[in-house]
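User: Here's a chain of 379 residues. Predict its fold as tokens.
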Amino acid sequence: MAQALVNGRVLIDGRFAEDRSIIMDNGWLTAIVARGHHPADASIVDLGGGTLVPGFIDVQVNGGGDRLFNDDPRVETIAAIGVAHRRFGTTGFLPTLISDDETKISAALDAASQAIAEGVPGALGVHIEGPFLNPERKGIHDAAKLRSISDREIDILIRPTGGVTVVTLAPETMPPEAIRRLSEAGVIVCAGHTQASADQIADALHNGVRGFTHLFNAMSQISGREPGTVGAALLDDRSWCGIIVDGHHVDPRVLRLALRAAPLSRFMLVSDAMPSVGGRKSFMLNGEQIIAAGGKCVNAAGTLAGSDLDMASAVRNSVEMLGLQLSDAVAMASANPAAFLGLGDQLGRIAPGCRANLVLLNDAGGVEATWIDGVAAYA
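Assistant: Prediction complete.
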């Protein structure tokens, strides 16, 4: 039976409308109609005056709900992480594997494939972050796991999963043909944990790099004589930049400058979330204890270890810390990552023909309900 979502403020084409009802049927958005003009036989869902926006898409989710993808890369882990994050508005996500061995990478790809085949709500693919990184910019990644990419590992990474595969790598650590081979096989290649110069990034972009993982963090910075990875990323008009808006990873003033330097359509919010999101505030990573406190995750030395951020908070922070309009903050959490993943025709918008992935926000920016493919996933 069709459902009519009524009595809400709805984000449509970048603007909020209060006189529209949204019709969804069999997992898809089928129509946007004037208030009171929904089908007579539709089941009514009263939004209570809340704000209805497209579901959030998070392309970098290490864990949630006390589960870390690296610890147990199986479909059950992906499902549990999805459950933890959907209460915060995430209706699509990429479980993310931090630098690990070849067996774990293969298992992560298999788990993503199985999750998509089984229809795990929100599962869109997988993100392999490392181990093909620059040790000088390793961050919390285990240095013992970092290595050069091999032909066999490329063969593993290009295996089809039925979803999207994103790989973060340091382009200066590998031959250009490795990037080209990944890109030509349909893998979305991102630069991250890299010490690359701007010229090296320009070459990597030419060879198929399409994005930058957590811009500013774990990468070469802008200086007066060398733009570095950050400068090259902001100068390029074809790629996307993930940003962690938690007030800890990057000073909000720096992010404001970045948003002035490049179009907002090229930025996407990511959580880089750890098991503490929706779970206990202490967990183990690479054999050491990580504590989530004060809105950040750190090890004993104070090194940032992912984040304690959820996507609803990232949207609120973008409004409060970066001074964005809610519609623009939501776009960075929905339409922009959908475009990055090549799924903009189905996700990231409230429009007929799109999947019914939706989030209902209250006046404080908290999540009241989510729908994934038309099914109430949190309410």
